[in-house]
Fold each of these.
Amino acid sequence: MATIQVITGESGRLIVQFPYSSERVAAIKSVPGRQWHPKEKHWTVPHTQDAVERMQTSFTADRLVIAASIQAASPQLPVKQVSKLVTALDEELTLRGYSDSTRDNYRLQV
């Protein structure tokens, strides 16, 4: 499981960074308007709710980390997606050896 980081870029774009794999490249290519920047070695996608949702459904085998500023500006996710994300978070925290109390607090924050 790799970490895919999504941060705010310039001019209405989001910067997406991840370790190379053909599966991840195929996943990012499913997002309309994506663009590879060879000099910076990262992808950008439009800063839209559709692009964020596409990434959430495309990168299922990896951990998608979206900057808090992007999430705050985005509308609420459907309950099913939130439930799936909370479950994945709990599994990751368990694997990392976090205590029950810490895991409870993290879930409450989500």
Amino acid sequence: MSAVFRTLIFTGLVPGFWTVVLPYWVVPRGSRLDVRGVGAGGWLLIVAGSALYLVCAFWGFAIHGKGTPLPLDPPKKLVADGPYGVVRNPMYWGVACVMLGEAAVFHSLALAEWAVGLFVCANVFVLLVEEPTLKRKFGAEFEEYRRRVPRWIPHIKGR
């Protein structure tokens, strides 16, 4: 089975849970989508976050890295360019942006709280599992990447 297909399955199950199933459970029935003001900003976050996730998961991990976002089936190559050249964890940013956008669109504090909770858990996972695993797997290549690219706050250099 190709890495793209495996990534598609992962995307439906994991980010799909956080961005589709969870809002379905959390947002009260009969809630209306807001398309003005804060809601319009939410739609922008949803589109931008979705695009960021898709680029990272499919172009970055599946095509370039020959793996998936699933920790049990990770990329075979260190993915360090594209969005990963700006920040080390752009895929988490993408999912968080979608969730925060949905919170804005539905005016849901509960969805915003879930997004913050997911981001906190992702940080713990990155610190305790992902980074030690990448260090063991890619050694000096990951260490150089880690020195060059920030974990969470993008550092965009002037040209």
